Amino acid sequence: MKRWDLIVIGTGLAGLTAARTAVEMGAKVLVIGRGMGSLALFGNSIDVLGAIPPGADMETGVADWIAAHPDHPYARMGWPGISEALGAFRELFSPPYTFAPAGKGNSLIPTGAGTMRPTYLLPVTMTAGAGASAADTLIIGLRGFKDFQGDTVSLHLQCRGVNLSLPRYGLEGLSALALARLMDEAPFREGLGEAIRSQMAGERRIGLPAVLGLKAPADVLGTLETITRAKVFEIPMLPPSIPGTRVFHRFREFLIEKGATFLLGNPAISADLKGGLCEGITLQNPPLLTPYRAERYILATGRFLGGGLQADTEKISEPLFRLPVSQPESRGQWFRERFFQPEAHPVHRAGIVTDQELRPIDTRGRIILKNVRVAGSILAHHSMIEEHSHEGIAIATGYLAARRALAS
Amino acid sequence: MDLQTEVLIIGGGATGAGISRDLALRGIPSLLVEKGDFTSGASGRNQGLLHSGARYAVNDPEAARECISENRILRRIAPHCIEDTGGLFVSLPEDGHEYRADFIRACAAAGIDTTPLSPGEALAMEPKLNPLVIGAVGVPDGAIDPFTLVVENVRDAEARGARFLLHTEVTDLICKDQRISGARVRDRVTGEEFAITASRIINATGAWANEILGLAGLSMGIALSKGSMLITNTRLSERVINRCRPPASGDIIVPNDTVSILGTTSLRAEDLESHEVTPEEVSFLVDELSRMIPAIKGERFTRAYAGIRPLVQSEQTHDDRDISRGFTLIDHQSRDGLEGLITITGGKLITYRLMAEKTVDFICERMGLDVPCLTHLQPLPGAGRGHTFQDRLLRLRHQTPAFRRELLCDCELVPRETVDAILREGKVRELQDILHRTRLAKGTCQGGFCVYRLLGVLNERRKEEGLGSSNRILTGFLEERWKGIRPVLWGTSLKEEELIESIYKGLFNLAPEATAPNEGGIP
Asked: Which domains, ranges and CATH numbers included, belong to chain B?
């Protein structure tokens, strides 16, 4: 049985960030996960903290937020730590497909519902969306592709919108993935570019569903911009997410290249815990149960959707290490009466409580497992959905967890 | 635009629709007004059970006889609204054999066929039953689709000249010299107010009966009883499963297409809109019904909902189950001296046709007409057309490939063409009207994906008509959806909810205050 320096459990953005950080520090890393995680669902741009107004200084904004929310995961590292982790993330994406803020601090980008969402780092394929305006933007829908409704977007932005019919390709019923693969083919994107150009009436920006290729999105962008002579941008839409899948692929490519071992599809089902340490975990690989051992472990299994947290009719639990979960007293208090309200539903603030170094602690503040760190959305005391902080928390805590784990 | 008719029916539930059809078949002109969509009240918020009457055989033999007689009639006139599942009454060790013996005798007396079954036979028929079952009795229960039933009555009545106004509420009754001469109404979508002149008004508003009577300064004794139900993600049984014990809460499981509906509770409700299902009710239903089918404990629930039963009070009683489930026809001329007003309320979905027959018989008598009722003989228009899941798949297969490929809802196989056809007809006013008329938002994700797509279809039409965008439709839908899903959020449904919240609140950053007011709803 091989012994690893670090086992990362979870292949969402937090787990991938932790694994990559550890690999760069020279560690021998095993990454295990059920699948592509939430990146393939919602990964688009990198949200850090939506509450900070567009254009405002991030450092001050985050400091103010931490002062008002001392339990928040960001209080573990502050803006300097967040910014260092984001810098490392950006280094992974070299030109031409890069991530950067659209201006100073947050910017607003259009979404598939026609609303604007505050976000921080944008892939190059979304940057032009930050400047979209009613006067100069054309929204392109693809007839028969149902997960992006172009008319909803153009009506809401009060700009012009066109639904293109591409009968030659039989787009009806196509998935986002199939469309993205078509985009990777030069003849298809050139044909699409020509079709868009024939519909233009002087617009200088063109918004499309976020399906501009999996392999070479910058090339797709380049082709479309050359043909239309306009700025082209992707608009986040219903899952699955193509931009998130690109991020997943890039991390996996990097990790495998650097010698990390990547096991997908076999969930960790139990942990061997002795004397305040984790001695090993067991993976289900039917019909086998395979044990894996490491010096250190990072738990980045996400929330309910990822399987990091489980809820029965009574309470919320963490199934792998059986860590205590900070949660409302009873199920009746998990959710508020209305779906939309200013405060997040209390259940979203539930999660694992840790010390400054992201080690899980009990209610008296004692460390439960000395060689386990916790990263990502499974942490308590945030509400990533309303805060628009999902990716920021994943990157900052994944980075910190790996740094601290390997320093010990 | 003032309107004129002979009989004005208030209420678009099963009773109102049934009366409309009965009047039409007897050649009497009518107009029906409904403040929401068809089946917005108890007709659309029940367990979808085609009672055999067995449930009432011991306690209320008269109700049992009505049920079995109507059960047989509905199988004849509305076979396309019914799935003939059959039903079982199962006895558990704690129920004993005594009630079962009474039950079989009472069913025989009411004319309900029963088939006594051994535990082994029952388990072979329904493998998910509790293996501790000590016996079962087969009865002719079934499943019924209330919305199709009502729409079919409406379709037939409309073809015979009856008229219908949806989203139209009665704001006042017009009386002259102790005689009804019509009503004032308001269109709830446009706000337009107008009068309808009528010689007679039938108050078929169910639990809302006193709201209408109050407009004439009248009232009657109605107890409001809230019944809550849960929808599972899979179908648990082939047949309706009843507990063989005196009627109580949490004792019926009705299969419905690909799912099952668990019910019910019976709680006194204070107001007509109290549709909230509490965590306690949910836990009670899960615990109680898992005695009959243990797999319910681990089942995923897609939604909870509640309906308000109007129980007509004859005297003080503590348990609402003791109040008769029978119906009441009140002639306000003899009762209150107000000529031309009739109230029909109480009863059950399965007796809607009988309630309509008695009401129209009474009206004919008052009008001095001698025209026989035909509703028990004349099948509904679509009676030859199947409506099961299998029929839907077959129809989908016959549609052209392009339509087949553009499914708005992948869970329930709803092609875009279905929605386009409904919009072309031009009768729907609100998003919920479209959802009522299709299987959109009825699957596992409860509309989490398909309503976004539906909004796109609507926005395409809004754009053609020069209207602005309307995300209010989407946020309103999500808020309405929340009422049903919130009580069942644990396990897998909680995972799904994280997905839906991440899409709409996270990715789309939707908030109700950020959206423009709805400019008239459906284009």
From this structure: 3-42+147-221+325-367 (3.50.50.60), 84-143+224-310 (3.30.9.10), 389-514 (no CATH)
